[in-house]
C-alpha cells in the first residue's frame, strides 16, 4: 500500500544548487551517565536547505523535540556539531548565542509561550527591545506584524483574553519581529482545532513564500505534509528517511513510513 | 541571500531594565502584592520584636531611675534604724562609691590604708562568690554542702572542713577558686578575718551614730524624722558621721510623708466594722482587705469621701482628709507600675543597661524568621517564572539582563514590603508597650531616633534579603539552557 519504498536508505540529498542553512554532523544527546545513560539522539546527520519548508515527523519520544531544540541553539549537544550557515553553534559565546536567538532564529512553540502578563503588542515588541530597537519604532513594526497575522485590532489584549489560534498568531508575529532567517516550529498546530490550525499554517506558508524564511516544523499534522517541500522522519534518535514531498503520497491515516 | 553573520547581542542599560521590571510589576499587580505582603509580615515581625525589646529596656531603666528616691528613702530609714549586715557592707566596699567608703571609714575610724586593704579583701570575696555562681547547680550544692559563700568560708577556718572542701574540689575535677588554692587560703585565714574585724568596727560605729541621732531627736521614728526634717537634721546627721547629700533630705521628705500616710491608712482600716464595709465595697473577702487593695481602689474623689465619712462614723476618729488619700493612692499606683516594669531586675547606678539575654535571643530568632520568610517569598515568585525566563532567553535576553530585571523587581518589592512592615511593626510594638506599661511608654518617647534606626536597619535587611533571595534562583534559571529551564515546572 505504501507508495514509497520502506527499505530506501536515508538519503541526505544535497544537490549542489541548494545551499545548506542548517547542517548537523553526528549529533548525539544523552542524559545520565554510565549504565543509566539514555540517548535522545544517536548521531543525527541532517541538512536543511535555505528557504525550504521542511516537516519533521516522528512518534513521541523519537528525539524530534530534542533535535528541534539543538538546531535552535536552545540546548547543547553531548557530541557532534551544529552548523548554522557554516557557523558552529558550539563555538559561540553566550552573548553571540543571544544575538543568534534574537535576530536569526524565530521560535514557535506548541504552548505558545507568550508572556502572560503582557498585551499582544508588548509580547511582539519584547524581542525588539532585546535587539535595541527604540520603543516607538518597535511599536510601529509590532503593529505591522500583528496586521500580518490579522490581529491588529486586538493589540491590547492579554494572552488570557485570546483563543489558542490567536495566541499562536501573536507568537508567529513575535517570532518574525527581528526578521529571522529561520523559523523553528514545534508542533505549532497541536493545541488548535482544524480551522484555526489551518489559519496558522496559511500564515506560515505565506511567510515561507513571501519572505523566503526557512521553516523547520516538527508536527503530527497531516495537512502540513501537503504544503511542505520536504519531509524528514526521525525514529529512535536517528534520521530514518528524508523525502521530497513530491515523492510521498499522503493518505489519511497512513503516510509514508509512519503508520 | 546574505549569509548569516553572528555578532554580539546589544546590552541594555539599567534604565531600560528598570522600565521593563516596573511594567511587569504593574501587570502582575496582584501576585506582586502577595509577595510584598509576605515581605511586609516578615519585616513587621522583626521590627516588632526589635522595637518592643528596645522600648521595654528603656522603660525598665527609666522606671528604675524613677524609683531611685524611693529606694534612697528606704535606705535612710534602714540606716537610721540598725547597722548594716556583713554582706551589705562587703558588697558596698567593692562598689565604686567614694562617699559611702568615706562614711565607712569614719564609722570604723579606719585610715586610708586599712580601707584600701578592706576593698582588696572584699574584691577577693566577690571573686569567690562569682566562682560559685558560675558553677553548675549540682556542682555548687555538692561543693558547698548547701552553704552560702560567707558561712562556707567562715567554716573553712577549721582545718578539717578546709581539707574536706579541697577534697570535694578534687573529686569534682573543678578548677581551684581564685586561680590557686594559695589565694583561697589567704582569703580564708587572712582576708576574711580582716574583713570581719573591719565590718565589726563599721557596725559599732553605725550603732553609735544611730544612738546619737536618737539622743538628738528623742521620741521620733526615723520615718517621721525624714517626713518632717527639722532644720538642723542635716547638720546633726553629718556630725554623727553620716554622708549626707545636700538637699537630698528635702527631696525625700514627701516620699517619707507618703509612707507615714500609708501607715495612717492601715490604722484607719484596722477595725472590724470598717473592714466589713470595705470588703462589701471592694467585692473581696474580708481577709483580703488590705492597704494595697484599698489604695488601688481609691481612684476617684467620691470613693475617698465615702471612706473618710465611713471611718469617722464607725470609729469616731479623725482620719486623713480625702484629697491626701487620693494623692497617696495616686503615688502608690505609679510606684506599683514602675515596680512592675522593673520586676526583680537591679541596675548599678551609672551602668548602661544591656538587653536581657532572652530578648536578644528573641531578636536573633525573629531575624531568622524574617530571613526564611523573605527568602521563601522571593524563591516562590522567581521559581514560578522559570518558563518566562526561558522564553525571554529564547527571544534573545542575556543572563545579565534577566538577573538585573529580577534584582530591580526584588528590591522594589523589598522596599514596599519593608516600608509597610516597618509601619505595622512599629505600631504593634507601641501598642503592646502601651498595653503592658501604660503611660510609662510616653516617658521614653522623648526621641524617635533609636526607634527609627532599628526600623531603618530592618528595612535595609529586608531589601537586601529580598534581592539576595531573588537573584540566586534567577541566576540559576538564567544560566540554564532555555530548554532545560522551560522543563522545570
Mean pLDDT of chain B: 83
Q: Could you give a short account of the major beta sheet of chain A?
A: 6 strands, mixed
Shape of chain A: globular
* Sheet/helix structural class of chain B: mainly alpha
Please state the CA-atom Rg of chain A, rounded to the nearest Å: 18 Å
Secondary structure: helix percent of chain A: 25-40%
How far apart lie the N and C ends of chain A?
11 Å
Number of strands of chain A: 12
Radius of gyration of chain B: 35 Å
Q: If you average the pLDDT of chain A, what whole number results?
A: 85
Distance between the termini of chain B: 40 Å
Low-confidence stretches of chain A: 1-12
Largest interface summary: A-B, 42 and 32 residues
Low-confidence stretches of chain B: none
Structural class of chain A: alpha/beta
* Helicity level of chain B: over 70%
Record field, number of beta strands of chain B: 0
Strand content of chain B: under 5%
Strand content of chain A: 25-35%
Describe the structure.
The complex is a heterodimer of chains A (259) and B (489). Chain A has 259 residues and is an alpha/beta fold. In chain A, 31% of the residues lie in helices and 26% in strands. Chain A is built from 7 helices and 12 strands. Chain A has helices at 64-71, 94-104, 120-130, 135-148, 164-175, 194-211, 222-227, and strands at 20-31, 38-49, 53-57, 79-84, 87-88, 105-108, 182-186, 214-218, 230-235, 238-244, 250-251, 254-255. Chain A has a 6-stranded mixed beta sheet with strand order 6-7-8-3-9-10, sandwiched between helices. Chain A has a 4-stranded antiparallel beta sheet with strand order 2-1-4-5, covered by helices on one side. Chain A has a two-stranded antiparallel sheet with strand order 11-12. Chain A is globular, with a radius of gyration of 18 Å. Chain A starts with 19 loop residues before the first strand and ends with a strand. By secondary structure, chain B is mainly alpha-helical. Chain B folds into 3 domains: 14-65 and 353-486, no CATH class; 80-252, no CATH class; 254-342, no CATH class. The two termini of chain B are 40 Å apart. The chains are: A alpha/beta (259), B mainly alpha (489). The A-B interface holds A 21, 50-51, 69, 72, 74-76, 84-87, 92-96, 98-104, 107, 113-118, 122, 126-127, 129-132, 174, 178, 181, 212 and B 1, 3-4, 6-10, 12, 16, 20, 23-24, 27-28, 387-388, 391-399, 401, 481-484, 486.
Amino acid at each position: 500500500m505504501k507508495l514509497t519504498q520502506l527499505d530506501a536508505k536515508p538519503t541526505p540529498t544535497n544537490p549542489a544548487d541548494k545551499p545548506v542553512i542548517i547542517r548537523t554532523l553526528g549529533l548525539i544527546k544523552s542524559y545520565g551517565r554510565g549504565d543509566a545513560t539514555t540517548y535522545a539522539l544517536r548521531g543525527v546527520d541532517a541538512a536543511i536547505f535555505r528557504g525550504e519548508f521542511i516537516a519533521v515527523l516522528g512518534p513521541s519520544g523519537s528525539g524530534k523535540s530534542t533535535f528541534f531544540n539543538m538546531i535552535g541553539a536552545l540546548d547543547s549537544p553531548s557530541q557532534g556539531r551544529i552548523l548554522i550557515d557554516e557557523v558552529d553553534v558550539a563555538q559561540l559565546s553566550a552573548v553571540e548565542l543571544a544575538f543568534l536567538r534574537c535576530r536569526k532564529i524565530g521560535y514557535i512553540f506548541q504552548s505558545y509561550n507568550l508572556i502572560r502578563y503582557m498585551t499582544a503588542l508588548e509580547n511582539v515588541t519584547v524581542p525588539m527591545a532585546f535587539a535595541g530597537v527604540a520603543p516607538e519604532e518597535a511599536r510601529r513594526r509590532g503593529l505591522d506584524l500583528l496586521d500580518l497575522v490579522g490581529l491588529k485590532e486586538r493589540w491590547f489584549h492579554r494572552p488570557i483574553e485570546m483563543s489558542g489560534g490567536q495566541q499562536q498568531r501573536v507568537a508567529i508575529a513575535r517570532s518574525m519581529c527581528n526578521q529571522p532567517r529561520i523559523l523553528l516550529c514545534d508542533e505549532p498546530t497541536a493545541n488548535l482545532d482544524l480551522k484555526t490550525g489551518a489559519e496558522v499554517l496559511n500564515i506560515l506558508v505565506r511567510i515561507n513564500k513571501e519572505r523566503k524564511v526557512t521553516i523547520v516544523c516538527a508536527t503530527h499534522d497531516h495537512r502540513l505534509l501537503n504544503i511542505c517541500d520536504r519531509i524528514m522522519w526521525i525514529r529512535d534518535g536517528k534520521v530514518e528517511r528524508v523525502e521530497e514531498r513530491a515523492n510521498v503520497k499522503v493518505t489519511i491515516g497512513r503516510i509514508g513510513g509512519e503508520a | 541571500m546574505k549569509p548569516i553573520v553572528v555578532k554580539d547581542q546589544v546590552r541594555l542599560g539599567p534604565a531600560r531594565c528598570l522600565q521593563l521590571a516596573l511594567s511587569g510589576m504593574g501587570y502582575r499587580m496582584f501576585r506582586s502584592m502577595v509577595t510584598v505582603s509576605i515581605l511586609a509580615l516578615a519585616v513587621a515581625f522583626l521590627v516588632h520584636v526589635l522595637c518592643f525589646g528596645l522600648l521595654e529596656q528603656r522603660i525598665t531603666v527609666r522606671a528604675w531611675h524613677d524609683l531611685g528616691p524611693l529606694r534612697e528613702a528606704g535606705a535612710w530609714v534602714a540606716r537610721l534604724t540598725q547597722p548594716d549586715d556583713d554582706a551589705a557592707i562587703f558588697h558596698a566596699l567593692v562598689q565604686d562609691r567614694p562617699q559611702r567608703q568615706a562614711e565607712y571609714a569614719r564609722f570604723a575610724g579606719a585610715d586610708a590604708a586599712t580601707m584600701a586593704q578592706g576593698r582588696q579583701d572584699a574584691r577577693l570575696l566577690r571573686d569567690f562568690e562569682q566562682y560559685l555562681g558560675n558553677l553548675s547547680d549540682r556542682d555548687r550544692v555538692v561543693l558547698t554542702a548547701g552553704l552560702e559563700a560567707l558561712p562556707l568560708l567562715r567554716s573553712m577556718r577549721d582545718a578539717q572542713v578546709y581539707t574536706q572542701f579541697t577534697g570535694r574540689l578534687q573529686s569534682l575535677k573543678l578548677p581551684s577558686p581564685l586561680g590557686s588554692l594559695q589565694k583561697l587560703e589567704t582569703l580564708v585565714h587572712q582576708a576574711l578575718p580582716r574583713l570581719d574585724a573591719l565590718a565589726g568596727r563599721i557596725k559599732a560605729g553605725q550603732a553609735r551614730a544611730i544612738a546619737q541621732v536618737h539622743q538628738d531627736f528623742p521620741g521620733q521614728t526615723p520615718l517621721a524624722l525624714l517626713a518632717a526634717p527639722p532644720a538642723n537634721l542635716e547638720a546633726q546627721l553629718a556630725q554623727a558621721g553620716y554622708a549626707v547629700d545636700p538637699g537630698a533630705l528635702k527631696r525625700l521628705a514627701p516620699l517619707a510623708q507618703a509612707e507615714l500616710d500609708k501607715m495612717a491608712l492601715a490604722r484607719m482600716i484596722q477595725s472590724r466594722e470598717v473592714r466589713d464595709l470595705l470588703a462589701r465595697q471592694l467585692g473581696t473577702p474580708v481577709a483580703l482587705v488590705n492597704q494595697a487593695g484599698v489604695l488601688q481602689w481609691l481612684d476617684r474623689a467620691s470613693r475617698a469621701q465615702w471612706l473618710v465619712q465611713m471611718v469617722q462614723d464607725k470609729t469616731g476618729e479623725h482620719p486623713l482628709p480625702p484629697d491626701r488619700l487620693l494623692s497617696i493612692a495616686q503615688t502608690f499606683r505609679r510606684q506599683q507600675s514602675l515596680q512592675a516594669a522593673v520586676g526583680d531586675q537591679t541596675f548599678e547606678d551609672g551602668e548602661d543597661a544591656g538587653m536581657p539575654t532572652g530578648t536578644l535571643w528573641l531578636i536573633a530568632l525573629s531575624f531568622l524568621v524574617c530571613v526564611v520568610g523573605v527568602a521563601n517569598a522571593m524563591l516562590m515568585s522567581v521559581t514560578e517564572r522559570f518558563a518566562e525566563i526561558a522564553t525571554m532567553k529564547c527571544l534573545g535576553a542575556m543572563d545579565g539582563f534577566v538577573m538585573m530585571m529580577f534584582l530591580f523587581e526584588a528590591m522594589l518589592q523589598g522596599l514596599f514590603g519593608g516600608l509597610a512592615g516597618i509601619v505595622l511593626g512599629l505600631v504593634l510594638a507601641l501598642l503592646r508597650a502601651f498595653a503592658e506599661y501604660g503611660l510609662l511608654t510616653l516617658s521614653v518617647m522623648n526621641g524617635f531616633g533609636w526607634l527609627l534606626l532599628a526600623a531603618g536597619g530592618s528595612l535595609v535587611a529586608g531589601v537586601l534579603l529580598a534581592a539576595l533571595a531573588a537573584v540566586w534562583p534567577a541566576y540559576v534559571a538564567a544560566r540554564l539552557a532555555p530548554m532545560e529551564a522551560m522543563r522545570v515546572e
